[in-house]
Amino acid sequence: MVRLNEVGRLLCAAGVQFPYLDDPMVVELLTLREAVRWCLASGFLLMRFEGDAKVVIDKICRADVHDSRVGTILEEIMQIFRENPGFTVRFVGRENNRVAHMVARQALSLFPTTCRYFDFQNWLASRM
Questions:
Q1: Where do the RNase H type-1 domain residues begin and end (predicted)?
Q2: N- to C-terminal Cα distance for the chain?
Q3: Which of 58, 50, 37, 61 is nearest to 3 (CA)?
């Protein structure tokens, strides 16, 4: 998860691993659910979630919860979106989010088994 401000400046990133899961759709949805929960717990009222997993984003946008593998997770995410009209989700192809993808990978490599946050600006400055 990469958090940007309203002008697109990177603020922080987080990584989380889901050991023993090998279904990319389940992992993408669990990651989105964690991001949505974190935003709620942090008091955000306006958030745009972007992802490069088109099948996942399409399921959310169509409210398609009929997939037995992910129906419960989808329903929980969609309920949060219904209750928080300032939350939106959209598909962004990987070729258009290279920086976010790189930062999310870095966050995951720093904290492989838990979801923790790091100061992206300091991390980036240390590499320059």
A1: 4-107
A2: 23
A3: 50
Q: List, in order, residues 6 or more apart from 80 with CB less than 8 Å away.
A: 36, 37, 40, 87
Residue 114, Cβ density class (10 Å: 0-12 exposed, 13-18 middle, ≥19 buried): exposed
* Structure-block tokens of residue 96: 């258009």
pTM: 0.69
- pLDDT (0 to 100) of residue 54: 86
Model pLDDT for residues 55-73, shown as the tens digit of each residue: 888 888 888 778 777 888 8
Residues 95, 1 contacting (CB under 8 angstroms):
no
Contact 15, 118 (CB under 8 A): no
